[in-house]
Amino acid sequence: NNSQGNTFLLPGATLATLLMLGALHARRMYDDRKVEEAREKGIEIEFKPDAKASFLRLLPLRSISRIWGFMTSVEYPVWMRPYVYKAWARAFHSNLEEAALPLGEYASLREFFVRTLKQGSRPIDHDPHCLVSPVDGIVLRVGELKGVGAKIEQVKGFSYSVSSLLGSSSFLPMIEEGDMHEQSGEQESTPTEKTKKSWWSISLASPRVRDTATTRPVKGLYYCVIYLKPGDYHRIHSPVDWNVLVRRHFSGRLFPLNERATRTIRNLYFENERVVLEGMWQEGYLAMAAVGATNIGSIELVIEPELRTNQPRKKLLHSEPPEERVYEPQGVGMMLKKGDEVGAFNMG
Amino acid sequence: STVVLVFQAPTIKSPNRGDNSNFRFCIKRGDKIRVGEGLGR
Fold first, then answer.
1. For residue range A19-32, what is the model confidence (pLDDT) as tens digits?
2. Cβ(B17)–Cβ(A213) under 8 Å?
3. Do B7 and A125 touch (CB under 8 A)?
4. Neighboring chain A residues of B36 at a CB cutoff of 8 Å
5. Cis omega before residue A128 (within 30°)?
6. Overall average pLDDT of the A235-255 stretch
7. Do A226 and B33 touch (CB under 8 A)?
């Protein structure tokens, strides 16, 4: 209530937020039930584009995402904060006891969404042979990449190319020629030919590679896709000790990434805006792609705080190359320890 | 939002590294996982 007469401005915005949360919750419950019923029947959901997915392509999802970010940045009065955040937690199954700060100290929903956790809430498995989860979420896909043009299945009946998701590798000089030999039974390239090939053309055409010394193990290329629900902890941590050499930012669309979207929208993961970190760990190559969505459109990096994603653009061309940064010192990059915070997904 | 991890790891037995050199996922599709929990060894 102020002197200009904007008496009901905040309650109106709050009511709209609460109504939206209610609608989202109802929708989520309905979708979850359908998926659960299908799972119980042993049915694997197949890819099936629909009119709604086509309609989504016409919407200005990036603008919607930024408006959502603006709305969720509205500061609530201190007395109201616990009610709003408890409602959010109830709707999306967040554990409020893990929040690092008292609820009254998060000024806005956006701030609450990227909350840190109390120390010890996420113990890290420090076994040096263990690769840990970088995020809280649900495992959508795991497996080994095989064959020419390695692909990850988005949903039964549709797969996407890993090289399209991650972009072209630019740190070939880091891979010593002696470290990359194609599997026995296939002809080996000459050193000159090898240097002309990109890392991807070697590793994805024949993902199993081995050193000249037969005592060293053959290496495979593996993948893991993890989906973060709205109520999950949204910070990203390092899965192993590794050196991050390159960061790529693909400024793409911002389709939703929920279960329905994965089975109705083609190329969902590599059409969406994303940040890819690429580097080396003790066993070789490692890349991590953080893919944004409509409600969680911007990605923030702890190792590069000046990076801005989900920016307004006059025109968006998907053929545009990603914006790339090679971390200094070249060839060493930024060293991250297992469990270190790498970045966060922000609302809008 | 989604995170995709792609990584190299040992894939067959090796005399130097014993029988544990194979990379094995310790999770499967549909599992809930939290930061710091093992994906594979």
1. 998 998 888 788 77
2. no
3. no
4. 122-125, 132-133, 237, 339
5. no
6. 94
7. yes
